Structure formats: C-alpha cells, structure tokens
Amino acid sequence: MATNLRRRIVTAFVLGPIVVALVLGAGTQSVAWAFGVVIAGAAWEWAGLCGGTAAFPRILYVVLTACALVLVEHWWNERGVWAGLNVLAVLWWLAALGMIVVAERRRSSSRCRGRSSPPGWSLPSFVAGWLVLVPTWSAVVGVHGRSENGPARVLMLLVVIWAADVAAYAVGRRFGRRRLAPSVSPGKSWEGFAGGVFAAGLAGAAVGAWAGLPGVVAAALAVLVGAFSVIGDLAESLFKRRAGLKDSGGILPGHGGILDRIDSLTAGAPAFALVLGWFGS
Questions:
Q1: CA–CA dist 60, 25 (Å, integer)
Q2: Counting CB atoms within 10 angstroms of each CB, which of 86, 90, 163, 266 has the fewest?
Q3: What are the beta bridge partners of residue 179?
Q4: 158-217: pLDDT as tens digits
Q5: Helix, strand, coil: what percent of the chain each, to 5?
C-alpha cells in the first residue's frame, strides 16, 4: 500500500506540471491534439474492458473514436454539436447513476453475489465508450477555446476534480464508516464523498475569480462537478468489475490506466461545460 501511494505521488508530481503548462501555455489546437492522444489511449483501454483482448478490435475502436473526435471538431460550431454533446453526456451520466444503483441493489442480494463474466463485444458497448470519451474531449477543448478565460477555466476544472479526489481519499481513510457503494467500489464512503464535494466547492471558490467567474457561482459549479466526478469514478469501477479487472491498464505507475486517471473528468467535464454554456460563458 505504501509503495503504491509513493508511486501515485511521484506520477502526480511528474504529470501535474506538464498538464498545467500545456493547459495554460499551449494553444487550443495543441490542447486538442494532446488530449486527443489521451482519449485514444483511453479508447484502447475501453475496448479491453468490453472484452476486446486482440489488437485488431482495439485498434479499430481507437481509429473510430479518433474519427468521431475529428467530426465533432468540424461540426461543433456550425450545428451546435458542442452544446448537444454536453447535454447528451449529462443525460448519459444520470443514466449511469441509475445503473450503479441497480447494480448495487442486485449485487447486495444473496442471489446475485459473485463475479460477473466479462461482457462481449456489442453495439451498446461501443456506444457507451463514445458517450464516455468523446464528450469529455469536446468539453475540455471547447471550454479552452471559447473565451479568453478558457485556459484558466480548464485548469479550474482540473483543480476542482483533483481537490475532490484527494479529499475524498483522505477523509474516507480517516473518517469513513458508511460505505457509498460497497458492491461497486468497496473503498468509497459517504464521508469521503461529502469531504470530496466540500473540497471541490472550496477549490472552485478559491480559483473562480481568476477564471472569470463570481465566487458563489464558481463554488456552486465546483460542487456540481465534484458530485458528477464521483459518478464517473463509480461507473468505471462498475465496468471494471464486470470485466473482472482491478485497473483499466498499467501505463501510469500507482494509478493504473488512463481511464483510471480520467474517470472523474469524464463525468465532471461535460457538466462543467454545460453550465458554462447555459450562462453564455
């Protein structure tokens, strides 16, 4: 446990400054390409969660996902695809929350305990992956490029999610008593959830003015993002449990795979972008 925690800290210290420098110092097109590479790696891992163990189906899924990103970038201004994707993604994550609740109830019953068999390839598996990954890329890149405060707002989004993750982990370890979703993710607690959302609100209030948002608005938006980030985390845990996997991959020491690192962002980013879009920000 201690060794794994040290690896997580080292990885975070190495990648953190790179991400901050890219978000604040690079143009939107560079951010789009860099984050596109991240999404491509996540698509590779998603294919594995859905039963694609061979190289060809994984490569095919990565290529199709990349094509979806290109189409989104081409059309999001002309046909309002950006706003539509944010709405679709938020609806998807609300549906995912329902899936988590149902799975928790089923698996907590004595009749449904046990390990699920890995899912096979299917159209729903493909579509679910795109609903997770494509709107995330669209939301981050869109926020970055749609106003002069875009880079600061993307960094605010990341800081809020990082604060929520760290606080949920720390509070959960120290004070966690009531488990949040024991069948889906046994390590998470209601106390950790509350601590993470509270920390998210504080982080949003602290950096909101710098990102061009009023403090109260920034704090409320950050609380929403913190809550949605937990749904993303739990949903990925559900998919991994169904596939019989502990991590989505092993590319990031101490963190697992790319999906393990961006699972909170996949749910938090579209909610963040949608609210900003509503206020014309």
A1: 33
A2: 90
A3: 189
A4: 999 999 998 998 998 889 889 998 888 888 899 999 999 999 999 999 999 899 999 899
A5: 75, 5, 20
